[in-house]
Amino acid sequence: MLNDLLARNVAWSKQRYDEEPDYFTRLAALQAPEFFWIGCSDSRVPANVVAGLDPGEVFVHRNVANIVHSSDMNLLSALEFAVDALHVREIIVCGHYGCGGVKAATEDLPHGLADHWLEPIRRLARSYAVDLGREPDLEAQRDRLAELNVVEGVRRVCETPILQRAWRRGADVRVHGLIYGLKDGRLRDLDCSIGPGHFQAAQSTQEAVQ
Ligand code: CO
Fold first, then answer.
1. For the segment 55-69, what is each residue's pLDDT rounded down to a tens digit?
2. Does the active-site annotation cover 191?
3. pLDDT tens-place string over residues 116-167
4. Of the listed 61, 96, 144, 174, which one is catalytic?
């Protein structure tokens, strides 16, 4: 298995080199991605592949069920580096339909550590129980919950001091929520984008209240 993987790597690097001889030296010198992607660890949703992006074009953080925990040092370190050092312009929180993490969060079964990890999704399921109850079946409920988890993730990213600081200094960075369909390979925009304008409006409301 590993030998197969290494052989595929040799073939890929050779093909890349043949297409563009300075490809690897160019990428080795600098990464300047426009995008930071927060997605699910699911092997069927690789950021570069589904977004049609080449190496060097997207900085990636993935975890089970693409959850934005506001105390996740791994995610926060990647987010800070993406915003403050790489100056990415677009941050994408991407969930997917048929997510095993979302499914686990809706089951009344013990999953060990995953139950701690997935707690924010359980909380969302309780908060939106009435809305979710209107869905026709369990699969549709879970897919709607996957969407809600993305919208919540976008909100949480925007609330981090990292984004608040970036917007305060005038950085033009936006946060978007997308959902990927395993059945059709399509990314859908959940229309929950937040950018500097939204932040400025919130600031002026705060100032008006004070
Ligand atoms: Co998933």
1. 999 999 999 999 999
2. no
3. 999 999 999 999 999 999 999 999 999 999 999 999 999 999 999 999 999 9
4. 96
Same domain for 103 and 164?
Answer: yes
8 A C-beta contact, residue 113 and residue 106: no
Residue 142: CA count within 13 A, CB half-sphere = 17
Ligand 1 center to residue 96 CA distance, Å? Answer: 6
Three-state SS at 61:
strand
Tokens matching residue 140: 């549709």
Give the pLDDT confidence score for residue 197 in this predicted structure.
Answer: 81
The reply to whether 16 and 40 lie within a common domain is: no
Residues 57 and 70 in one domain: yes
Domain that holds residue 160: 31-209
Instruction: Report pTM.
Output: 0.92
Is 94 one of the annotated active-site residues of the chain?
no
Which candidate, 104, 99, 106, 101, places its Cα nearest to that of 124? 106
Residues 55 and 20 in one domain: no
Binning pLDDT at 50, 70 and 90, where does residue 199 land?
low
Please say if 131 is a catalytic residue: no
Quote the pLDDT of residue 111: 86
Tokens 């996740």 identify what position?
Answer: 72
Verify that 4 and 85 share a domain, yes or no: no
Q: Give the number of other CB atoms < 10 A from CB of residue 204.
A: 10
